[in-house]
Amino acid sequence: MTNTPADQAEKVAGVEVGERRISIPGMTEEGENLAAETNQAAEHSHGGLGETKQLTSGIGSRANRHTGFDVAGFPQPSGREEEWRFTPLKKLTGVLTDEAGQADAAEHRVTASEDVFVSSLAQGIAPRDSVLQPADRAAAVAAKNVDDALHVSVPADVEVAEPIRVDITGAGAGRRANSHIVLQAGTHAKAVFVLEHRGSAAFNGNVEVIVGDGADVKVISLQRWDDDAVHVGQHDAEVGRDASYKHVAVSLGGAVIRLNTNFRYAAEGAEAEMYGLYFADAGQHIEHRTFVDHNSPRNTSNVLYKGALQGASARTVWVGDVLIRKEAVGTDSYEKNQNLVLTDGARADSVPNLEIETGVIEGAGHASSTGRFDENHLFYLMARGIPEKEARQLVVRGFLNEIIQKIGVSSIEDSLQEDLENELEIAGF
């Protein structure tokens, strides 16, 4: 391309090119070659779902990942698949079995103002299944086995002052529950949805979020299960033109938590964010997977997940995918995961993935870090007379507080601070 003076920058699809455009090594305006030949999964490799040779062909790119409502399209995983290799599958037998849940296994209770509409959606009734496309066996099982989905809707141009709460309470360990929730905000609506999980169950929950044009929506998902609960889920959102969307996942309780949190865009001009906080104790497995699908131009995204681990068998997993498609010119995207290991034997797996199919973007990046306390921070605090135990607590609080502050609901932020105090007491800090 011929260089263009800065004051006469050429634009392609509304994005500056020439000397002023963002330069990415190895990229052209056509993007890096992510075709099947460069991402082909060999027969011996895992590759994406990896459930059949047909499904795994060429799925090195997240764009080729299998989705669908047919449970048969997702065979029982063996643990050798890329999608499941970190997950303790023996503990998920109940939620992966294609069967209806027990009617009283988990209660859903909605607390909302009068301008919020609460109803149910039968199979095949829109807007159910208009956003969420099951991406693994668990999500397909939940979609199939929930006759009536919970539908919580905010009309266009309505600003809901108080958070809309959906309290989900499990009736007991091992009791099987399937759940499907549809959260909807009309054009220029503004609302905060809080999903809080307590009690215990073998819980399989889908959540789909429809964010209208110009809407401002926040979804806060709190996993405060008892120690013997199992929770798998998929949360999908579609973000409208010039809309703002924020998803915050907080996972503190439960034996096994595995959440897939994803969003895509309905049009340009939107800003979407995903934040996560988790604290794993001995015996806990907490797994978060995120996917940002930049499928339209000039949108922004930001993903930040932070976790702390203590206990010899504490385990956390974060797998983050960002796909910037060829048509998504002008994209600005970043994802990061940070883990703080507090004791010997705890393990944190962190896998950031970034695919770029066009070089005409504002920016894109990813980062991951896992480590112990910064001794310089401890020294700084202790040198000012703060005892070591209190200094360690301050470091952990400061590390995780960045996510808590993203919630924006003071009552929830205060209660999470108390939860973290309890976690630190368990850790002996």
Please summarize the sheet with the most strands: 16 strands, mixed
User: Strand percentage, roughly?
Assistant: 35-45%
Secondary structure class reads: mainly beta
Quaternary: single chain
Please indicate the count of domains: 2
Gyration radius from CA atoms, angstroms: 22 Å
What is the string of SSEs from the N terminus onward? Answer: EEHHHEEHEEEEEEEEEEEEEEHHH
Mean pLDDT: 87
Low-confidence region ranges: 1-59
State the total count of DSSP E strands. 18
DSSP helix fraction: 10-25%
Distance between the termini: 59 Å
Contiguous helical run count: 7
Pfam families: SUFBD_core
Domain SUF system FeS cluster assembly SufBD core: 173-399
Protein name: Fe-S cluster assembly protein SufD
Family: Belongs to the iron-sulfur cluster assembly SufBD family.
Summarize the structure.
This is Fe-S cluster assembly protein SufD. The protein is mostly beta strands. The chain is built from seven helices and 18 strands.
What does this structure look like?
The protein is built from seven helices and 18 strands. It is mainly β and 429 residues long. The chain has two domains: 103-372; 374-429, no CATH class. The longest helix is centred in the C-terminal third of the chain and has 17 residues, at 388-404. It is globular, with a radius of gyration of 22 Å. The chain starts with 10 loop residues before the first strand and ends with a helix. 46% of the residues are buried. Residues 1-59 have low confidence and may be disordered.
